[in-house]
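Let us practice reading a record.
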Amino acid sequence: MLEVRNLVFHPLDNGVEKSIIEDISFTVEDGEMLVITGPNGGGKSTMAKLLMGIEPLDSGHIIMDGIDITDYSIAQRANAGIGFAFQQPPRFKGMTVARFLSLAAGAQLSERVCCDLLSGVGLCAREYLNREVDGTLSGGEMKRLEIASVLAKPHKICIFDEPEAGIDLWSFSMLVKQFEELHANKRESLILISHQERIIQMADRIMVIKDGKIDAIGKREQVFPGLVGEDTGCVCRSKQHKA
């Protein structure tokens, strides 16, 4: 279980302290899917980076399976079982896709396993294994490779920052199936940052972050009794409900 206690993040912006995350607390149970949504600029991606240790906390605690990991480095958190997929994945010139997936898995992966991972995120596997993870790949291709790299290794908890960004609808449907499978098997806890209605509908609980604070948290029917938008569009409004 992940327990987040009273997280605060006030970075300096041109010498002026700016409130980004203000006293946020929540839990994620084993095998649970928590979807974090809310207005752009509200602090969702920053929250994910705080959990992974990419940004330093000002105060608060992060507890995983009863162990305080607040002072853990990024590598230590990864070794403890946290996986992370960036909203804008980094690129690695000179590194092939096959090597990238093997490094993410922590072991040399067979061609068959790499192909399964790539196919699962909507990529024609054999066309990508020997390509470099560099600027020749589109943003959508990079996003799918990033997600495949997280899926390459078992984790206790996986954090996906807007996994739907920059990909086509067919690939998005394949990603949803991957999340549904992970969730159904309860192999890992999942935190997904998303505006997509289809992803929000899969959640065990939804957390709305607005202006750096929790605006609402609870089961989907409590937070969003009626979803608004296209079938693959964003949620346009929320119910002001605390749970």
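A brief commentary: The CA atoms of residues 201 and 220 lie 7 Å apart.
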